[in-house]
Design a protein that fits this description.
Length: about 350
């Protein structure tokens, strides 16, 4: 036992072990061993306070956004030598974290995963811990934890980043209830979108979305929004709201999808010929105009945020034919605004909606 104890003490003294702080391993890049100043100070009775925005921070796809976070000591302790700041992205239920960035104040920063090259700490005044994310992506939407670590002291707070966007239901060409969870993820991505999460679906419902077909959400649950209760949609006696089937088997069960698309960096425009176009001719026409055939998510975003209103049907990238109506009028479909669909015609000649980056 004595030999084992001595061997353990020698191993610890040699520095060959991996230091562990507050649930996160800091590798050699994040540590400073040259001056011995990173030893933990004894707790002196001061309280570390971390504060973020209590209101959601709103942004949109392609933008730059700052997630505010500041820290302080009560009472103030003056400049600290080795403060570490860690940002992580949380699941909605707080059960799992994705590392975003770790910084040693005044020293080294390291971003992780999809945030490499896009995340950095805001350079500002003392006690600043805000995170800047550039070229915001659809999947950046969610909750972020700002954690400040000073030796053994560790405090954190959470800020909610929400993308301005819209939810649209999606069925593939094969028809209703044909997608398992993984296929639903892919079809949303193919249409310039991602699977919606619950708060995005709830926001869409509060703005008027009423859809009787159940669809996958990003957490693997299957739900659908009802504004006007009716017999085929859960019954006439249930209150309006989000109906839920709960979690479903991601490979075996099949439903539609609810996709989420954000604001556009480019523009959607309509092209036509007197005799119309086939799908392949439509794709070529967009290329000739220095653009590409628009995806479904891009058409919905142009309708929602750019006021695109066109009573002429046009091809989209998935082979569907649709048209966006902001101001309902005679011969343009129902009396409510929306994106009308002709489905996936195997024949026919139509115009085309194209998308071009600005």
């Amino acid at each position: 036992l004595t030999l084992l104890l001595k061997a353990t003490l020698l191993r610890l003294a040699s520095g060959s072990y991996h230091p562990f702080h507050n649930g996160f391993y800091y590798n050699q890049v994040m540590n400073d061993n040259d001056d011995g100043q990173d030893k933990v100070d004894s707790f002196n009775g001061a309280r570390l306070v971390v504060e973020t925005s209590k209101d959601p921070v709103y942004s949109y796809s392609g933008a730059n956004v700052t997630l505010p976070c500041r820290y302080r000591y009560e009472p103030d302790q003056g400049p600290k030598r080795k403060m570490r700041i860690k940002w992580s992205k949380l699941r909605d239920d707080y059960t799992k974290e994705q590392d975003v960035m770790v910084t040693v104040i005044g020293k080294t920063s390291m971003a992780f995963g999809d945030f490499k090259g896009r995340a950095h700490m805001l350079q500002g005044s003392r006690h600043e811990a805000s995170l800047v994310i550039s070229d915001v992506r659809l999947k950046d939407d969610g909750k972020y934890r700002c954690e400040v670590i000073d030796g053994l002291e560790d405090e954190s707070d959470v800020v909610d980043l929400r993308l301005q966007g819209m939810v649209f239901p999606y069925q593939p060409p094969r028809g209703q209830y044909r997608l398992n969870f993984h296929e639903a993820e892919r079809v949303c991505q193919d249409q310039g979108a991602i699977l919606a999460n619950f708060h995005q679906l709830f926001q869409a419902w509060s703005e008027g979305l009423d859809w009787c077909n159940a669809g996958w959400l990003a957490d693997g649950t299957v739900q659908y929004p009802i504004r006007l209760p009716r017999k085929p949609c859960g019954g006439v006696h249930l209150a309006p709201g989000i109906r839920s089937y709960g979690p479903r088997h991601r490979r075996l069960h099949r439903f539609d999808a609810f996709c989420f698309s954000s604001m556009l960096k480019g523009e959607v425009f309509y092209l036509d010929r007197p005799a119309g176009m086939t799908l392949e001719e439509a794709k070529q026409s967009c290329q000739d105009a220095g653009a590409e055939i628009a995806r479904v998510g891009q058409l919905y975003s142009a309708w929602k945020f750019l006021g695109l209103d066109r009573c002429n049907a046009g091809w989209l990238a998935d082979g569907s034919v649709r048209y966006p109506i902001v101001t309902p009028r005679a011969n343009c479909g129902p009396a409510e605004p929306g994106v009308r669909s002709f489905g996936f015609p195997s024949k026919g000649r139509f115009g085309v909606f194209c998308y071009r980056e600005r």
